[in-house]
Amino acid sequence: MRVGILTYHNSYNFGANLQVLATQKALEKQNVTPIVVNYRSSAKYEFYQTTTSLEQAAVHESFIEKYLTLSPLLNSTIEVEEYCLDALDAVIVGSDAVFRIQAKYDPRKFLRQLIHPDIAVSYSEGKNVLPPYWLDWKQYKCGAIPVKTSLAASAMGTKFYLLKLSLYRDLWKSIRSFDLLTVRDAWTQLMIRFISLGTIIPSYCPDPVFVLNNYFTVPSNEIPDIDVSRTILVSGKFSPEWLLNFKEICRSSGYLLGNLPNPDQDFIFPGADIEIALPLSPLEWYSLLARAAGYIGIRFHALVSCMINGTPFLTVDSLEKYQLTGRLRSKIHDLCKRAGVLERYVTQKRLCSRPSEYVLKDLFKARTMAQCEAYVEKAKDQFMDVIDKILKLAEMRSSGSKRFSVSKI
Fold this sequence. Notes:
This protein is α/β, with parallel strands linked by helices. Helices cover 44% and strands 10% of the residues. The strands form three sheets. The protein has a five-stranded parallel sheet with strand order 8-7-9-10-11. The chain has a four-stranded parallel sheet with strand order 2-1-3-4, covered by helices on one side. Strands 5-6 form a two-stranded parallel ribbon.
């Protein structure tokens, strides 16, 4: 059985690379042939050219070539559709922000781009059109079409109530064509319910990285030669004054303070005990989080990586001022809520206003780390249950059984 994975596999983003690796490895263990659908968007490539150095980009490309099983290069939605119809028994869309759509009438984004025209705000596939991740296929072929599924898909905070009106019809048609819909967060679930007028409520599926350790061992050459076992890593734009004060508190407790880069920014700060510089591979980044004494910072997959490796963390959300739907759209708030560890979710403003000694105490609370451990085991089972459902659907389709609707899953 050939199962396609259509996701942001070629993003210059640590978490995006890790989630597709985890999905591929999980499928391999189920005795099927996973193939990453090698769709490459020119718009996304141009975006990353403005945000990522050539050296860091080369590291991501090396990861993709070395660890992922790729289809032929596909450059358009039509090419993706033709490949899926001709070569695959099932298509898995996700994980990651594959259901993200750029809202036409987003006044906040318009003002931001008007004030800062030279700054790349974010990447969003297409504008006023459905990207290929929605599987809005136009062609037909004789016989059974591949099973269409989504795996922990996210809309990444899409303001779906501001979309162009003509898109809703296409979205509704696309949603109805899926054999199984699962999402990664409550906001995406709300978006699907809104578009379908409450007739379709997708199931929750944890991120694939939750099962990475079960099916993949990081090679020794991907483990940085840096001892971070007594180091608290920080990632984000924190004030020098806060960092200096927090470093002194860490030192008084026997810890060092170091930075953890993102692909577009290293976050090295003056006086850091340990400086970690780019370029850095996705697996090196993951290994640092797995071996650190603690982590305070941004990024959803940094949160997941800490949870599955038992690394104490405080996950930081840089909520915009006056943003009424901020927490509802926040994927890290959603995950902490599901895990029952909202004490480990903080806004940047709250973190920096709290005395450093209390921040350190919050970081090492044993009770909430035990809750994380329990949730991780549950998340692994939930994820593999979804994988089993997808493969059973594909088996039934290939054997000629009647097509299931989303509501029957």
